[in-house]
What we know:
With 371 residues, the chain is α/β, with parallel strands linked by helices.
Amino acid sequence: MRVLHLLGNSEDTGGILSVVRSLQTATEGLCQHAVWVNQAFVEKRKPSLEFRRSSAATDEDASHGRLLWQAFRSFGGLRQLLNDESFDIVHGHTRGSFPLVLLLAAAGNRRCVFTSHTYAQRVGMYRMASRWGRVRWVFLTPAMASHYGVEVRPRRVELISACCSDVFFNAPLRPSNQLPRDRPIRLVGVGNLVAWKRWDIFADALLRLAPAVRDLIQFTVYGPTTSDAPAQTYAASLRRKILDAGLGQQFVLAGPTTNVPAVLAESDGYVVLSRNEPCSVSLMEALAGGIPAIVSDSGGNVDLVKSGVSGVHFRTDDAEDLAHQLSLLAEGKPMFGTPEQIRQSVRERSATAVSQQYLQLYRNVMAKSSS
């Protein structure tokens, strides 16, 4: 089975590429995956993927008009690619690929799948599209389907989680999640330095803590700053905020990492601050390693993190509530399950489990198109 994943990325960042890499590894010998990206894309992470390129491909843009225009610009080249090569499934993942999947289906391609990886504001457009029987739709979590107001219906609208590599489920677990008393509590976050990730709210929370409590917390963010202007502006303002507040010892921006397992192994807890984080791959990696999490109570976090078992929630965008959770952590009061219980809470989100769901979905789509 051959699958063409429509992404349109120009940079090798983001969780969707991580998901595709995990699916490729988990379906080796059963499925061949190719990824449609922008001509400027340079692969920087492993394992390597097979790429198809377009000068007009795009993954995201703040303007819906530009997304549609780029889709029309790249549509001819994509159709030519599909004429030159035989793919059993065309699988869109990004907002940039959303109109492309609709155009392909309208042109007669009956083997299109679209997985929503974002919390779009224009939910009506996605809701209408999900009712169209020519494309099989996938949402990552129940919270995402609820956001769009879409009912999950087998063989029309599916619920399939993002996933993380089986490597994280196979690694040895630490004996316990007992918090340290001889050093600061090491918290980590992984992700791009972009505004919607809300890294800045952690600085606001730290400033609400008494100095003695603040000194018990150390937060390190591992992630790149993408080349687009909004991301560059946000990263610069975040650095200034940390510096001006004198938080350099408690809040560190460490830049990108290619060794997430090593980062997680040195941490005591994982942090997700985003507003409507879709289904964080790095969060799943942490939980698969038995590491508890502090997460905002929105998006996929509410489905991934089980309060009192795998972590705690704080009110989204509420620095005061986050500070309260951090103070409880510093006092040793939060109660989590054992590392094994935390791992088991996301077992069904392993690459092996999720790839089996996608393989079955692909087979159903192929069977329907042949009938």
